[in-house]
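Re: weekly structure request thread

Next one in the queue (388 aa):
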Amino acid sequence: MKSLKLLLAVALCGLLSSCFKDEPLNAECDIEQAYVHVDNPTDIFYSATDTLINVLSDVTDITFSVKAGVDLTAMSPLFIITDGATISPANGSTHDFSNKTSVVYTVTSQDGKWSRVYNVKFEEYTPPLTEFSFEHYYLTDGANGGQYYVWSDLNEDGSEMGNWATGNPGFNLSMGSSAAPDDYPTVMLPNGYKGAGVQLTTRSTGPLGALVGRRLAAGNLFLGYFDLSTALTNTLQSTNFGLPFDHKPLRLTAYYKYSRGDSYQDEDGNIIDVQDMGNIYGVFYLNHDAKGNALVLHGDDIKTSSQIVAIADIGGLDETDEWTELNVDFVYNMDVDEDLLASQGYSLAIVCTSSFYGASFRGAIGSTLCVDEINVLWEETSDEETEE
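Done, posted below.
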């Protein structure tokens, strides 16, 4: 009996010692949020919500958008970083961000073995482009191995806007280095309508995609950004559609070709008697809710949200092997507030997909949409008409 008690005591001591062992030091080194404290935010920013940026896991360039002519010589950004990490220069230290100056911050993990470099800057708002030719593209390395195409238009100084996004980063999680760049859902098209274009193809996501109930990935291209952190757990929230737009859009035009895949499948992988269709559409929406909270539309509400002001959408695109012009008006369901428009209170999303219901993981493997020369025609203000 004594031997049993002794064994139990030894076991208990061992259990307690294991509970009190030091946790391993955190190896992460990320900026999770960047923000600025100022007395009167709208003196510098278009909206008070512009003082806070949620930093995506694959982003290292952090840019605050500010009004023209504001004094940026003494700004003191603050950062929320991963537990235990340190940041240099010091969190909240003051720097001169004028003349598009970037300040480099280095975040070092708690265990001291890893670091990550971020470029932080403040820039005057640049009016968005309305003509897109997709001539600027490059290959980037994925977080799970492999390379895929990225598109970005250029500012006047040659810097990247980072305005176009795709679901390629999510596909990279499923397929990694086993997929070549041209095997991804959204790839460069050498022979577009004019110069290069973009080819969107509905692809199988392989065993991992089937395991998480996402058996296919439609090729997509959209104004906005892709949040990789929710790609496998809440895919519809990964697509963040739209960017601030300070003009009233009137018409969306583009050139496209489309061919559908042979076998249409539902979200469970069952083959059903349905023909796939492509889609190219525009959505103009209020980017703050009634309480003043900033928002973006996602894959689950891009066509249904009560925030939507206007939509340009002719519905599904049928097959055509010739470059065909898309020309569709924005249909408005509410008036536009000119003051809100001038303060970037609206966002514009342009979305292209190779499978109409691809966001619900329904479509035909092999369906292909080629797109090029997207243009948005917008209403000129009286001031702009006078200048001309």
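Residues 1-21, 382-388 have pLDDT under 50 and may be disordered. The chain is about 10% helix and 35% strand.
Next request, please.
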